[in-house]
Amino acid sequence: MGLLNFLIKKREAEFEPLRLDWMQVDVHSHLIPGIDDGAKTIEESISLIRRMHELGLRKIITTPHVMSEFYKNTPESIIAGLKLVQEALIMEKINVELTAAAEYYLDEIFLDKVQNGEKLLPIANNYVLVETGFINKPQMLFEIFFAMEMRGYKPVFAHPERYQYLIQDKKLLSDLIDREVYFQINLLSLTGFYSKPIKSFAEMLIDEKKVKFFGTDCHNHRYLDMLESLPKSKYYEKLQQQNVLNKFL
């Protein structure tokens, strides 16, 4: 073994294994097979859930995409898929609570759904997970948030650290904070999985205590493989001390 490899292995040995007991509940994942870009088969779903449970999660709220262009999921199709996975978990004797919500893409069709009073699937209580495109801010962003609030929903902005328009627009960030829109950070962002700017923005939001939820956003085993490196982050201990809502769900 060369000196460099020896030093790398020695450094890796200094870090503790990843645990998610402190979070208890994951509020963002894609584990219902075949209905979005997450798990493809029931076998993959069960394998991912078993692994997540072994990391210390007692509850997983899986959140399939609802996007008018690509993933036309409905509460009925999501709940039907959830039941299949729940039955498989019982067969496999995996004692973890699995429920389902949705990750809604903000566009005109979603706004129509809200204004027409269509049923949404919250992650808990009235918290509804929403997302946008990564590059450009939706023109109707605040209009949609207002419509949701009028219907009694509390918007939870999925992975805001990944939106380039938000990283570049400090006033928009301030406006969202002033409006008390809840932020959900992806744990993977702290590993540098997406990019260094995204990692830095996530760290800033944590430092400023603007984060209300953490999530894995797990789609497949590659996500969990990379998540295993989270204890190497200087924020691993800090994020465990955040006053987030996960463990109360």
Automatic annotation (TrEMBL):
Coiled coil: none
Pfam families per UniProt: CpsB_CapC
Keywords in alphabetical order: Hydrolase
The keyword Hydrolase belongs to this UniProt entry's keyword annotation: yes
GO molecular function: manganese ion binding; protein tyrosine phosphatase activity
Organism domain of life: Bacteria
EC number: 3.1.3.48
Top-level class of the enzyme under EC nomenclature: hydrolase
InterPro entries: Caps_polysacc_synth_CpsB/CapC, Pol/histidinol_Pase-like
Reaction equations catalysed: O-phospho-L-tyrosyl-[protein] + H2O = L-tyrosyl-[protein] + phosphate
Family note: Belongs to the metallo-dependent hydrolases superfamily. CpsB/CapC family.
Protein name: protein-tyrosine-phosphatase
Organism: Mongoliitalea lutea
